[in-house]
Q: What sequence folds into this?
């Protein structure tokens, strides 16, 4: 994927020079290892800021909400699915966008890398196509990227963009025989009491910083329910009941909309696996409605549609 | 002043033995990182860290704290009377605090304990707390304490200092509080000259390892309005998602919000950490929000730390260079770069 960087710069320059777009959204290389920073480029002279590698694990669709200008944006599989979701939810218009499609071979799990290196401080990470090298004071080790993929990337079924104006490379083969829901199948077998214990433990270190919510392109409500003060729905202390309420409600608001991009887990400062909430809902959306969020533009999502032939009696 | 040396095992054992005299807060490994926790049965101190994920500021300013309690039950005599909630100010010690985090308490003291205002709980907790620092042999690449008036072995704000000598800890008391604490610690021997000499070279060696140099020398001379209106805020703030990671992880962020929570007829008045990154932070009762845009909120955080605080108190920026926000900002907004922009504007 490293060769994408130059292509992204070339395309962005062309788009900005021709005036096809007003701004271009991508990543710039970060100031700490395994971190990149979303960047808005307005001037063709600045396109060399743009960068792509296996640490672009946020979701740039988050920066599109309610923009009024014409925007060029890079999008891999999951990000493109969120752009589709944004379009069908009227957060941006398709004709405002120039989507630069990036076939994706997955992002590196920075936590797993740090865990493996233990107390050795990582000062630099470089990568080739299928491996990466971690170095610091007195050590230098090379790993295979496939052994350190983020868990959502390891089981990703849409590595290629579903919607784009231009691709920077030929599509990569989609993964076959992967099951994204293995852990959820285990969770489903638990008793209600065990589930409660599991989720309570899962979020026990939550700081209520809302990084998971704020980094998610689905969370664009003008005022989130946890921020409402008239009336106030949720307490703001660290009471576990309030924290659990936040996580459950956030997850349910993402039902049938989540693309499992993993940005929420990427950003959590205390490493909570909050995809355990959303993945169950993704599984339900798939099993009950055959729905994978953001894969099609010609159909309304199952939870915002009314159909006379609905098999549920209660809606009739 | 006492100077004692301990084998690493005996030091841990000694801390466990102190629990009857103090509530002892120590770094504990939890999953992938360390945090300060109350030492109790089943918990083991672990001093193998560069820094803890959160600073121990919550020991003094808990993330959520019951300030007052009241009843709305009018059959009771004290209905609607707001009473102070029960609090515990028994002696406690934070053992293994890095010098940056200890210095942070000195910086925030100006807010909680000044001639005009004293926050009773912050003040009493600080009074009952002993800070046993832990010299930093291996500062992180994102650390810049030496740029902001501190250092990896700084003694500012500390009652005692632990120094890692490889197989042993040298612990020196720095105040009478620290001496009383160290006097109660079991085991350990009076440190001999050889050990003290060995420890002498460590601060310089650690300072040399600090690769981040952050310019802050011109901040005071800059015009507030010029910096406020500087064009770079748009770029600095673009990526920000307005979460609370930077503020919650920051040892010098002190802001809080006060909330009433009522269950049935019993109410609590609670103060919770708040963050200037949250839109709600400045939302007025009228519905007006003077900082309703991301740019304004991001600017506020950096202006507060690197300009308003500097101008108002004249004791340097409200930043101790611990590097937590640098490492953990979800979108890589780097205070080192922002300070450079402001200082050089």
A:
């Amino acid at each position: 994927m490293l060769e994408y960087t130059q292509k992204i710069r070339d395309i962005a320059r062309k788009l900005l020079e021709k005036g096809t777009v007003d701004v271009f959204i991508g990543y710039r290389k970060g100031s700490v290892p395994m971190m990149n920073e979303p960047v808005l480029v307005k001037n063709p002279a600045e396109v060399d800021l743009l960068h792509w590698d296996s640490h672009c694990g946020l979701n740039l669709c988050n920066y599109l909400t309610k923009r009024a200008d014409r925007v060029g944006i890079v999008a891999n599989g999951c990000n493109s699915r969120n752009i589709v979701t944004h379009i069908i939810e009227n957060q941006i218009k398709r004709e405002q966008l120039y989507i630069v499609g990036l076939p994706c071979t997955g992002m590196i799990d920075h936590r797993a890398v740090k865990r493996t290196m233990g107390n050795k401080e990582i000062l630099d990470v470089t990568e080739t196509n299928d491996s990466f090298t971690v170095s610091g004071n007195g050590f230098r080790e090379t790993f295979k990227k496939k052994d350190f993929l983020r868990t959502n990337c390891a089981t990703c079924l849409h590595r290629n963009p579903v919607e784009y104006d231009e691709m920077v490379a030929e599509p990569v083969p989609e993964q076959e025989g992967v099951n994204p829901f293995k852990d959820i199948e285990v969770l489903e077998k638990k008793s209600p009491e065990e589930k409660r214990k599991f989720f309570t433990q899962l979020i026990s270190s939550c700081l209520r910083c809302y990084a998971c919510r704020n980094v998610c392109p689905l969370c664009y409500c003008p005022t989130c329910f946890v921020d409402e003060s008239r009336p106030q729905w949720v307490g703001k202390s660290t009471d576990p009941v309030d924290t659990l309420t936040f996580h459950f409600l956030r997850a349910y608001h993402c039902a049938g909309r989540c693309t499992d991009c993993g940005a929420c887990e990427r950003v959590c400062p205390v490493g909570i696996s909050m995809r355990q909430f959303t993945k169950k809902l993704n599984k339900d959306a798939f099993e009950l409605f055959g729905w994978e969020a953001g894969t099609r533009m010609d159909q309304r999502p199952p939870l915002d549609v009314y159909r006379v032939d609905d098999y549920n009696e209660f809606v009739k | 002043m006492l100077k004692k040396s301990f084998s690493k095992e005996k030091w841990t054992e000694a801390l466990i033995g102190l629990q009857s005299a103090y509530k002892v807060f120590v770094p504990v490994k939890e999953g992938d990182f360390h945090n300060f926790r109350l030492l109790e049965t089943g918990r083991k101190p672990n001093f193998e860290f560069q820094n803890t994920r959160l600073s121990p500021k919550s020991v003094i300013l808990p993330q959520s704290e019951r300030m007052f309690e009241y009843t709305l039950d009018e059959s009771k005599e004290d209905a609607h009377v707001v009473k102070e909630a029960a609090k515990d100010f028994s002696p406690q010690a934070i053992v293994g605090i890095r010098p940056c985090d200890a210095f942070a308490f000195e910086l925030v003291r100006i807010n909680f304990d000044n001639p005009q205002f004293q926050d009773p709980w912050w003040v009493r907790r600080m009074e009952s707390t002993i800070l046993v620092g832990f010299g930093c042999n291996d500062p992180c690449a994102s650390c810049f304490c030496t740029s902001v008036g501190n250092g990896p072995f700084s003694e500012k704000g500390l009652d005692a200092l632990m120094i890692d000598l490889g197989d042993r800890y040298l612990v020196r008391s720095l105040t009478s509080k620290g001496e009383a604490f160290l006097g109660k610690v079991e085991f350990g021997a009076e440190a001999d000259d050889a050990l003290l000499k060995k420890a002498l070279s460590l601060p310089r060696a650690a300072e040399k390892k600090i690769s981040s140099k952050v310019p802050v020398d011109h901040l005071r001379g800059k015009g507030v309005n010029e910096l406020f209106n500087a064009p770079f805020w748009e770029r600095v703030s673009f990526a920000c998602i307005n979460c609370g990671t930077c503020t919650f992880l920051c040892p010098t962020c002190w802001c809080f919000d006060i909330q009433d929570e009522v269950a049935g007829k019993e109410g609590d008045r609670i103060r919770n950490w708040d963050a200037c990154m949250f839109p709600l932070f400045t939302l007025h009762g009228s519905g007006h929000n003077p900082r309703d845009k991301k740019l304004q909120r991001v600017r506020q955080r950096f202006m507060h730390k690197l300009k308003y605080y500097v101008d108002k108190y004249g004791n340097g920026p409200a930043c101790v260079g611990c590097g937590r926000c640098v490492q953990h900002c979800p979108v890589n907004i780097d205070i080192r770069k922002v300070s450079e922009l402001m200082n050089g504007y």
Observations:
- The radius of gyration of chain B is 22 Å.
- Chain B is about 30% helix and 20% strand.
- Chain B has two domains: 1-61+76-211, 214-345.
- The interface with chain A takes residues 30-33, 48-50, 53-54, 63-64, 138, 140-142, 235, 238-239, 241-245, 248-249, 257, 259, 261, 270, 272, 275, 278-280, 283, 326-328, 330-334, 336-337 of chain B (CB under 8 Å).
